[in-house]
Design goal:
Blueprint: E1 2-6, H1 7-18, E2 32-37, E3 42-47, E4 51-57, E5 61-64, E6 66-71, H2 72-81, E7 86-92, E8 95-100, E9 103-108, E10 126-130, H3 131-139, E11 157-162, E12 165-171, E13 175-182, E14 184-186, E15 195-197, H4 199-212, E16 217-223, E17 226-231, E18 236-241, H5 250-253, E19 261-266, H6 267-278, E20 288-293, E21 296-303, E22 305-312, E23 320-324, H7 326-333, E24 341-346, E25 352-356, E26 359-366
Antiparallel strand pairs: 1-5, 1-7, 2-3, 2-6, 3-4, 4-18, 7-8, 8-9, 10-14, 10-16, 11-12, 11-15, 12-13, 13-26, 16-17, 17-18, 19-24, 20-21, 20-23, 21-22, 24-25, 25-26
């Protein structure tokens, strides 16, 4: 095996794969990245037995084909100090020779045959979604998961794939967020009860889309307790085990709008007021009091003294107030780009429903503080 390739291009693909090696395992080979050299491209593979990734690198000068295990930590350190334009690899028995400019490294490597096979997805049943749309579904839901219990059903994002749509939902028991997107079903693919996808896999998908571009199409397939994401031209494939457990009946949690009062709030003014009032909260007094009056929303906080800020809103109902966690509001308000107004649906002593007036396929439900 012998190749020469651009250092920056190699580092981008290798480091993406190396992020998903096993941190520790009885099989040390899983702490390395497998590199397979074909006639006109290179394939990087890594897995921790939960999440697997397969990445193609093209524009490589191939001297000879073969396969080798590359120690991930050591290789990342070499790449961090690499100053040359190109990097050369040559396998001599079980020794990998690496040359970067005038620097030369000889690294012993384990047998590549000990690494589990990560085959390319060839199924005919899958959903297809634009990368930019999938990024929106992911970024608007991952922040509301229960990150303290990584094996629990609420630690992941629920994917529901139906004909023409993709729903992603997350909740930590105190808030719930739902994003609906467009998707095309091929081969009758759909999820009967949904698939709970771990955050690690979704983080890999976000990075993959960043690598190939948001205008590329992504295949999504759920089968046998696993979910697979494949970018266009099979450049990157990510496979992950699904999170065990039963996700809450989320549709029942989203409140009806008909028995609630509605306030239309300018997003930027609301976001600034939340950030300014959050400064005054403390651990013992963490909440923001939102007092809705005709034409005005007054946000106030107590803790490090007292503070309040008015926001002009479109509201003509009776006065109503609720106390909310400012951190949960900040998480939610980060999600928007190009949005000018929010609609807030309220009911006394009940959850609060937030929607964007420019994007009614997104909903955020927040439980009030006592």
């Amino acid at each position: 095996m012998k190749i020469t390739c651009n250092s920056e291009k190699f580092a981008a693909k290798f480091n993406l794969a190396a992020a998903y090696v096993a941190s520790r395992d009885v099989k040390t080979v899983l702490q390395d990245v497998k590199m397979v050299v074909k006639t006109d491209h290179v394939i990087f593979s890594a897995t921790d037995n939960e999440t697997s990734i397969r990445i193609v690198l093209r524009d490589v000068e191939i001297g000879s084909e073969g396969a080798v295990m590359i120690p991930s930590r050591l290789m990342k350190s070499i790449l961090q100090t690499a100053k040359a334009e190109n990097i050369d690899f040559e396998l001599d028995g079980d020794i990998l020779d690496i040359r970067v400019g005038t620097a030369f490294y000889e690294i012993p490597t384990p047998d590549a045959n000990d690494f589990p096979e990560i085959s390319l997805f060839t199924g005919e049943a899958y959903h297809e979604v634009l990368g930019a749309d999938l990024l929106k579904n992911i970024s608007r839901t991952t922040f509301a998961t229960d990150m303290e219990n990584n094996k629990y059903a609420l630690s992941g994002v629920l994917f529901e794939l139906a004909d023409g749509s993709i729903d992603t939902v997350s909740t930590d028991g105190r808030r719930l967020t739902h994003q609906r997107g467009k998707a095309v079903s091929h081969g009758g693919h759909q999820t009967e009860s949904g698939a709970i996808v771990p955050l690690k896999a979704l983080n890999a998908v976000e990075k993959a889309i960043g690598e190939v571009g948001s205008e590329t199409a992504i295949k999504i397939a759920v089968e046998g307790g696993k979910i697979t994401f494949v970018t266009a031209n099979d450049e990157i494939m990510i496979t992950s085990r699904l999170v065990d457990g039963r996700f809450p009946a989320w549709r029942k949690i989203i409140p009806e709008k008909t028995d609630r009062v509605k306030a239309d709030v300018p997003l930027n003014d609301f976001q600034l007021a939340v950030q300014q009032m959050k400064i005054m909260t403390t651990e013992s007094q963490p909440g923001l009091l939102l007092n809705f009056k005709p034409g005005q929303l007054i946000i106030s906080a107590s803790g490090n003294g007292k503070s309040s800020k008015p926001v002009v809103i479109a509201y003509d109902q009776n006065e109503i107030q609720t106390k909310l966690d400012p951190n949960f509001l900040v998480d939610f308000l980060r999600c928007f780009s190009g949005v000018t107004n929010l609609s807030i649906y309220l009911k006394e002593n009940s959850s609060v429903l937030f929607e964007s007036q420019q994007d009614d396929d997104y909903a955020y439900i927040l439980m009030p503080l006592a």
